[in-house]
Amino acid sequence: MSELLNTQPFRVGIVLATYNCDRVHFEQQIVSIQNQDFANWSCLVLDDGSSETIRRHIVEIIGNDDRFIYRAQSKNLGAYHNFESGLVYFSQDPTVTHLAFSDQDDVWYPQKLSRLLAELEAQDALLAHSDLELIDATGQLLHGSVWDYEKRQPERLSPQLLLLRNTVTGCTVMIRKSLVPDVLPFPKLPSMGGWYHDHWLALVAAQKGRIVHIREPLVQYRQHASNVVGAEKQAGTIRKELELWLAKKGRLTLKSYPIHRQLSEAFYQRFSSSLESDRTNPFHANRIDFGFSILKLGLQSFLKGYGAQGITLRLLVNKVIFDVIKIKTLLTKKLTGKRIG
Asked: Residues near 121 by Cβ (< 8 Å), separated by ≥ 6?
């Protein structure tokens, strides 16, 4: 299949984001990209404000391989907008037909690009992604399937269920270039932090067309203390949410609901009319329903086996608290206004 793809007019642009990467891990990632059995690719290495020493290491490791393009951001953008700038870069290259995304410290299997590309073409999809193996900092295998480890069921996703939980990992993703105009510009992130590029890509792809799910690890995902996002055992389950809550000694940060609400609002503003958004957005800012819309979405997740019940519980509790606060605020304003009158 890789030989057939190499004879077709396909060209993959790889966006590799770096920030103070480990030299050994980065070199292993570069070698794994160089060893792809699909040969028609170019890789944009976008550094997001690393130290001068690390930048020199990056340039040395890339060496004279002209398939790699190195660019340093003028200021730190964060991973989300760093990947966005890579999309902008390749959107201006007429030879690129597909885009893939790479972390700085993973290891790709040689067939990664060819498998993703073949499935995209065979199923006329907009996005393809795969399972991952979980390895530690030294490369030792921790788990053979991140999807099993995190109890993911990505085959059952929909745009609405993705608003609850993302089950698509960026370093396994390939998209058609035709998706880029719908993806750009990325929505602005909340000041408290928010979602990642893969979450937005998955939402847009699920809305606009088909996503292919490959239950085969094509990446070794390195788990270590410096991960921006790491794999979490039984993520999304009620048990995991209760464990996290107990670890915080019962404290609630109330950050989850505002982040999900802003992502949902960005999605509906991009792809729906305001009237449709008012009716269908389960996280609509003006709706006081004590989490009923979120509960319905969680029930849909349960019935489909998507596996976001724990996240539903967390968001439900958040929404109830926010709605109680909102009602108290409205009542206080009303009572205060009457006294003044």
From this structure: none
Single out the residue of 212, 164, 192 nearest to residue 314, CA to CA: 164
Prediction pTM value = 0.91
What mean pLDDT is predicted for residues 212-226? 91
Give the pLDDT of residue 246: 73
265 three-class SS: helix
**How many Å apart are CA 292 and CA 138, to the nearest integer?**
46
CA dihedral defined by 134, 138, 139, 144, rounded to 10 degrees? -30
State the Cα–Cα distance between residues 23 and 104, nearest whole angstrom: 9
- What the block records as the tokens of 258 is 């505002």
Which residues, 6+ apart, have CB-to-CB distance to 281 below 8 Å?
A: 264, 265, 268, 272
- Share the mean pLDDT of the chain: 91
User: How do residues 125-148 score in pLDDT, each as one tens digit?
Assistant: 999 999 999 999 999 999 999 999
Alpha-carbon span 69 to 328, nearest angstrom = 56
The Cα–Cα gap between 36 and 130 comes to 16
